[in-house]
Amino acid sequence: MQKRWKPNVTVAAVIEQDGRFLLVEEDTRDGLRLNTPAGHLDPGESPVQACSRETLEEAAYDFTPSHLVGIYLNRFAPTNATEDITYLRFTFCGELGRHYPERALDFGIARAVWMTIDEIRAAQERHRSPIVMRCIDDYLAGKRFPVDLLQVDPSIYCTPAVLA
């Protein structure tokens, strides 16, 4: 029997304030890379909750997603590597809240940085993936979908039964 393939589910926040976008600089095996605040969906949370959590952990800001910008599928299969990972990303925009400058950022995050769209476009070779620019472009194009498009069954919040 063939093993079932499953993509890695991630979330991301596109946050604009005063003509600048909030990005994070991440330490990766390829050096420092730029990304929107983003990360993996954890057990027991909805994509909206995950996006709020990841923004706080990576950029030290409260964030309340109000709209889904888009759902993206991309593959990470670097040359000369054993990895071949597919990501399914839910990208949100919303309301930026309080900043916690004293808060330590998540492991691997060097800093949060505000950049103009021109600065972001000029730094595309440093983007974590091509999806970074695509998500921001979709946001700028006005793509917005209600967050209740994503239905979360209450079973997500239950502790899973231990299998014997």
TrEMBL record:
In this record, what's one Pfam family? NUDIX
Keywords from UniProt, A to Z, are:
Hydrolase, Magnesium
Nudix hydrolase domain sequence ranges: 4-137
Report the InterPro entries cross-referenced here: NUDIX_hydrolase-like_dom_sf, NUDIX_hydrolase_dom, NudJ
Q: Which SUPFAM superfamilies match?
A: Nudix
One GO MF term on file is: nucleoside diphosphate phosphatase activity
Q: Does the keyword tRNA processing apply?
A: no
Q: What is its EC number?
A: 3.6.1.-
| Keyword Lipoprotein applies | no
Q: What cofactor does this one take?
A: Mg(2+)
Q: How does it assemble?
A: Monomer.
The family this protein is said to belong to: Belongs to the Nudix hydrolase family. NudJ subfamily.
Matches recorded under PANTHER family: NUDIX HYDROLASE 23, PHOSPHATASE NUDJ
UniProt name for this protein: Phosphatase NudJ
